[in-house]
Amino acid sequence: MTRFTVTKEDRKTNARCGRLKTKHFVVQTPNFMPVATQATVKTQSPADLKKIGVQIIICNTYHLMLRPSSSVINRLGGLHHFMNWERAILTDSGGFQAYSLTDLRKITDEGIEFSSHLDGSRHFLSPEIAVTVQEELKPDIAMCLDFFSSYPTEFLEARIAVERTVNWATRSLEVKKKSPYLA
Q1: Which of 4, 42, 65, 141 is least buried, going by the fewest C-beta atoms within 10 A?
Q2: Which burial class, exposed, middle or buried, applies to 95 when counting CB atoms under 10 A from its CB (0-12, 13-18, 19+)?
Q3: Three-class SS of residue 90?
Q4: What is the dihedral of CA 118, 165, 144, 117, to 10 degrees?
């Protein structure tokens, strides 16, 4: 189970430091998370990352769902085994791709339909599917599917993004409550 403990607070600014205890590692916060989009931090080995003190990395659900697939990673023991990384891993939900791949996606309240940037094949990512895919990846921390608007944005567009994200978070939580891995 993941637990967060505040270790220091600044009374003037309310800034805080803490300790995030995950299944695989205790992460001191604040902390920099290198991005391992496709289960690798480009040009760095796990040994190199450990030498420089990396405590947690972030992997991308959308990219891993497409290649090599969450089921392949699951069969190989999850991301930690697949990457040879025994420290903490956070997986994002794929929500950023809804923002960055604007020409390749269609968004509804149900989720996001993508055309793969690899081969044009169609894929659907709902809050429920994002949780299921992340469960197969077996991260320490899984993020719910989110939707956000660009900056600057109109008030109504921002409100729709927030309301959609809250709705998707609620749906994600319902799936998480039923999951033996993420519970």
Answers
A1: 42
A2: buried
A3: strand
A4: 0
Q: Which two tokens stand for residue 138?
A: 């077996």
**For position 183, what pLDDT does the model report?**
45
**Please, what are the domains in the chain?**
3-178 (3.20.20.105)
* Spatial distance between the Cα atoms of 63 and 49, rounded to a whole number of angstroms: 21
Give the CA radius of gyration of the chain.
17
The 3-state DSSP class for residue 150 equals coil
Q: What is the pTM of this model?
A: 0.92
Strand locations in the chain (E): 3-9, 16-21, 26-29, 56-60, 88-92, 105-108, 111-115, 122-125, 141-142
pLDDT in tens, 77-125: 999 999 999 999 999 998 888 788 888 899 999 999 999 989 999 999 9
The per-residue DSSP string of 34-79 comes to -B-TTSS-TT--HHHHHHTT--EEEEEHHHHHHTT-HHHHHHTT-H
